[in-house]
Design brief:
Blueprint: E1 4-6, H1 8-37, H2 46-71, E2 72-74, E3 90-95, E4 100-106, E5 117-119, H3 123-128, E6 136-139, E7 146-154
Parallel strand pairs: 1-2, 4-5
Antiparallel strand pairs: 3-4, 3-7, 6-7
Helix pairs in contact: 1-2
Length: 161
């Protein structure tokens, strides 16, 4: 798996999820499966079958998170500065209709477009990278190209606009 970037907050979220699955969810599910297995015939035991399925899902997610955490590079936006948009930057833009929007360029694991947190691999994220205040960016989208003007770039804690 190639290196991916993530903010400290995103890395903390993935680490917390891994800890929750490994220390809480998995032991609880193992106990539930053992209890269901003790009830007898496993071939007709829905609780046992569901528990085993849930356990496989948990183990799959644990393996994914472990590999993901090994392959990510944490980049703290607060340690950066400048007037060019790089990973972690918060970018204020205005579209042709005068609508202002704030985006933070984040890793793919922490992307939440509805909250303005866009992946650096997304069309908007790629369009904003390496741009400066005053630049105009054309972002391709299915509904037609979106033209944005960059109004401000800052590094630090992201605040929803």
């Amino acid at each position: 798996m190639a290196k991916s970037y993530i903010t400290p907050e995103g890395a903390a979220k993935l680490t917390a999820e891994l800890k929750q699955l490994f220390e809480v969810e998995r032991p609880k599910t193992v106990h539930e499966v053992a209890t269901a297995a003790a009830h007898g015939d496993r071939s007709e035991n829905a609780e046992y079958k569901y528990g085993k399925l849930r356990l496989r899902d948990i183990d799959r997610r644990i393996r994914f998170l472990q590999k993901r955490l090994d392959s990510i590079e944490v980049v703290d936006p607060r340690s950066q500065s400048g007037n060019v948009a790089f990973f972690g930057a918060t970018v204020d833009v205005e579209d042709d209709d005068g609508k202002r929007t704030r985006y933070q360029i984040v890793g793919e694991d922490e992307s939440e477009p509805s909250r303005g947190r866009v992946s650096y691999l997304s069309p908007i994220g790629r369009g904003l990278l390496k741009r400066k205040v005053g630049d105009r960016v054309v972002v391709p989208r299915p509904a037609g190209d979106l033209e944005l003007e960059i109004l401000a770039i800052c590094y630090g804690d992201f605040v929803d606009a």
